[in-house]
Amino acid sequence: GAVVSQHPSWVICKSGTSVKIECRSLDFQATTMFWYRQFPKQSLMLMATSNEGSKATYEQGVEKDKFLINHASLTLSTLTVTSAHPEDSSFYICSARTGGGGTYEQYFGPGTRLTVT
Amino acid sequence: GENVEQHPSTLSVQEGDSAVIKCTYSDSASNYFPWYKQELGKRPQLIIDIRSNVGEKKDQRIAVTLNKTAKHFSLHITETQPEDSAVYFCAATDGYALNFGKGTSLLVTP
Q: In this structure, is the dihedral angle defined by the CA atoms of residues B73, B108, A108 and B3, taken in order, positive or negative?
């Protein structure tokens, strides 16, 4: 149980275009989903937290107009990288949590490797 | 906000030896401390976790200890095997988002 999928697993796009990444909880309802970015040989950096049906909460320094997050249902959250640039190339990982207070464990998706040329 | 420090950044041990990775955290409100193993290009995998009401937890060759007073927790891997080679991340949370350490690249040589 507790499986999280991401699509696509990798994507190459041209500078200036937009890319959408999907994160799905396959066998549970995710009240909260998190989006992380990971540069090579670095740690996971939290970008934003999304709760189903409400606006995402972005971490300091993350441009909300550039990284659009939508959590339209309890099983799906999307991250859209708008007007992508080469510096946006990274490994994007989502995670999902089942409940609210007292529910700590997060289940990670397999990640999406984005390369912007 | 929470700040998690992790040491060492790299660790090389011989097969069969033990490996210890240490983390400190700053926010006394943090009460959940998971450890993740990440292989290159893959998702982080939870290997063990501990809550603030417990001082130690063990799962076969892996153990975690927590000292709430000093705000530090450690991962212990005994009888290391080459397949233990990976990057290990500690994290801390008060139930909101995970705050990760910078990671430890563990290499187990045969």
A: positive
pLDDT digits (tens, 9 = 90+) for B48-92: 999 988 899 999 999 999 999 999 999 999 999 999 999 999 999
- Using CB atoms, which residue from A41, A44, A104 is nearest to B100? A44
Please name the member of B43, B44, B97 whose beta carbon is closest to the beta carbon of A46.
Answer: B97
Among A53, A78, A83, A54, smallest CA distance to A68 is for: A78
**Cα distance between residue B82 and residue B108, in whole Å:** 5
Convert the pLDDT of each residue in A15-30 to its tens digit: 999 999 999 999 988 8
Contact residues, chain A, for B100 at CB < 8 Å: 43-45
CA nearest B102: which of B2, B1, B7, B32?
B7
Question: Is some CB atom of chain B closer than 8 A to the CB atom of A105?
Answer: yes
